[in-house]
């Protein structure tokens, strides 16, 4: 297509009845490929014209991708507003002074401006929203304050990868709550998690897991991650086959099997207390991966910054303190898999007072391995699964309100710190994740709720144009569809292209018109339903409507019926796709 025609095409890009315009962004060489198995999902998103990556980690959203993105954000807005959150939008620029107060300015993932080093591009907005609320001087009658926004965020990824799953710029829904007490904050936390559950379960209808998680740099004492299971995911979850508890590997705690053997040799990991005056020595079986999952709950005084330091750096800090080494305190933590016969590394400090030593035993301080015992129920075994994180909810407590002196006036007219929560959903990340988990050898399978179109229209050769126009007049306006109107693309390749795009239903007008043929491209992820909506409709009207359906030898589901019943049948099918 000549370049001079492009501007006119782009002006029509939101026309719902044709994607001819969008084909200028797609790679027609895909039609020469027999199978898409070897094409990564993030590459296929680009080849089909959903997105374009101008540089590593930077995404342009094209018409098809934007339609999907807008449907997704509409669903999220609905769920957040159902539980009382109001939308706002903060600036992408955030002030250095706030981040210094919360101790997060030195985060290596912050994009900091070079021509004005007092600002950064915000990867999240805990600091800014807390400061904004603080300035309003609210009292208890104004609480809770519930806010959310959907905006672009920025994070310096040294190695952007997997397209939308790990980018430097991304679209995110971040929400924040301000409550008067812990109990009220917990009610809000549960409320948001219920909204998330409805979004993932009832809107997207995709299988997901809710995992106990480490709060990381965001902070707070409790958090949960929301995941799609996928073998290419970067996260590892452990799930108990008895009680069903799911935890991120960083939070999961396991117990050894009854017939385990104590470790012959141990490794050690050193940490410091918050005042840097106590050295915490953590001994665990050699070859296992050290984990702080349970340790941080047992010893609350640990300086979290030392988790990222080497043993050598920790010793330097410990010895640089003004207090005499002989007066310092020591805590030895022994993993449950270690006993008196285990060979421990030499302790580097030779002069100390024995009464300054304390011992903690019977803790599990290593990451679980397959088939170890669940610490939660102490009965089931843990099994690992790879997953893609797409959401995270946090109870923050007073971490940010205390750091930024954000207070409200209580019933007693006393200033108290807000109890806060924050709640994120990676919107662009969800698009990338669904592309990854739904892709097969023929293309994508979008959930109907976020598919760029409800169905695709394909017209067989030599069909009268009047029949096509007659059919279009019968379609409800609420059902958007696409039609590839390029005569150079064969009938078979038009069907192939629509399968690649992942639109859930392909409607075919052939020589038997007004009989319509439907081919189901979408997937019914909810396998536990006793009866799908189209099955209920078929029982009521199938015989009267002369409606028949079949699943051929290739597993392809097809429906045949008169055009007058098209809207009712398609709408019933979409409810489960």
Notes on the structure:
By secondary structure, this protein is of the alpha+beta class. The protein folds into three domains: 3-36 and 440-574, Rossmann fold (3-Layer(aba) Sandwich); 69-252 and 378-433, BirA Bifunctional Protein, domain 2, CATH 3.30.930; 254-367, no CATH class. Helix content is 24%, strand content 27%. It has 14 helices and 28 strands. Strands 3, 7, 8, 9, 10, 11, 12, 19 and 22 form a nine-stranded mixed β-sheet that branches. It has a six-stranded mixed β-sheet with strand order 24-23-25-26-28-27, sandwiched between helices. The protein has a four-stranded mixed β-sheet with strand order 14-15-16-17. The longest helix has 23 residues, at 182-204. The chain starts with 5 loop residues before the first helix and ends with a helix. The relative contact order is 0.13. This is proline--tRNA ligase. One of its GO terms (molecular function) is ATP binding.
């Amino acid at each position: 297509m000549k370049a001079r025609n492009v501007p006119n095409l782009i002006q029509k890009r939101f026309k719902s009845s044709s994607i001819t315009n969008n084909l200028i962004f797609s790679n027609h060489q895909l039609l020469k490929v027999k199978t898409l198995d070897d094409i990564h999902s993030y590459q296929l998103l680009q080849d089909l014209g959903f997105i374009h990556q101008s540089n590593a980690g930077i995404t342009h959203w094209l018409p098809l991708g934007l339609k999907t993105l807008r449907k997704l954000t509409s669903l999220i807005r609905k769920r957040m507003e159902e539980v009382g959150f109001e939308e706002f939008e903060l600036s992408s620029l955030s002030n250095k002074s706030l981040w210094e107060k919360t101790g997060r300015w030195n985060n290596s993932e912050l994009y900091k401006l070079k021509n004005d080093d007092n600002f950064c591009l915000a990867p999240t907005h805990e600091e800014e929203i807390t400061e904004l609320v603080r300035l309003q001087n609210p009292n208890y009658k104004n609480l809770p304050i519930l806010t959310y926004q959907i905006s672009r965020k920025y994070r310096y990824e040294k190695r952007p990868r997997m397209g939308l799953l790990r980018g430097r710029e991304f679209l995110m829904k971040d929400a924040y709550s301000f409550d008067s007490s812990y109990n009220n904050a917990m009610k809000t936390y549960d409320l948001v998690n219920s909204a998330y559950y409805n979004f993932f379960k009832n809107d997207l209808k995709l299988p997901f897991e809710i995992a106990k998680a480490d709060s990381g740099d965001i902070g707070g004492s409790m958090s949960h991650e929301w995941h799609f299971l996928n073998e290419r995911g970067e996260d590892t979850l452990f799930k108990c086959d008895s009680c069903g508890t799911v935890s991120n590997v960083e939070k999961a705690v396991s117990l050894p099997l009854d017939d385990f053997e104590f470790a012959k040799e141990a490794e050690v990991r050193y940490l410091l207390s918050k005042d840097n005056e106590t050295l915490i020595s953590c001994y665990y079986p050699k070859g296992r991966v050290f984990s702080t999952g349970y340790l941080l709950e047992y010893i609350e005084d640990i300086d979290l910054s030392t988790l990222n330091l080497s043993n050598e750096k920790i010793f330097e800090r410990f010895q640089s303190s003004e207090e005499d080494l002989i007066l310092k305190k020591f805590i030895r933590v022994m993993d449950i898999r270690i006993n008196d016969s285990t060979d421990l590394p030499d302790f580097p400090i030779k002069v100390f007072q024995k009464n300054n030593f304390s011992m903690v035993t019977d803790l599990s301080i290593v990451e679980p391995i397959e088939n170890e015992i669940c610490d939660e129920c102490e009965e089931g075994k843990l099994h690992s699964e790879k997953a893609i994180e797409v959401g995270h909810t946090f109870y923050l407590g007073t971490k940010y309100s205390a750091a930024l002196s954000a207070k409200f006036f209580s019933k007693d007219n006393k200033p108290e710190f807000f109890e806060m929560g924050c709640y994120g959903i990676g919107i662009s990340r969800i698009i990338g994740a669904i592309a990854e988990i739904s892709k097969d050898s023929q293309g994508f399978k979008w959930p109907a709720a976020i598919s760029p179109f409800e169905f695709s229209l394909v017209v067989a050769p030599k069909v009268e144009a009047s029949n096509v126009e007659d059919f279009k007049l019968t379609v409800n306006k609420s059902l958007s569809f696409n039609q590839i109107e390029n005569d150079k693309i064969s009938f078979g390749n038009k069907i192939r292209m629509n399968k690649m795009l992942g639109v859930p239903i392909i409607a075919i007008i052939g020589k038997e018109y007004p009989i319509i043929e439907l081919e189901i491209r979408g997937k019914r992820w909810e396998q536990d339903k006793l009866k799908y909506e189209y099955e209920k409709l078929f029982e009521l009207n199938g015989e009267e409507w002369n409606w028949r359906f079949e699943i051929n030898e290739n597993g392809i589901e097809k429906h045949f019926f008169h055009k007058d019943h098209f809207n009712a049948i398609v709408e019933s099918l979409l409810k489960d796709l």
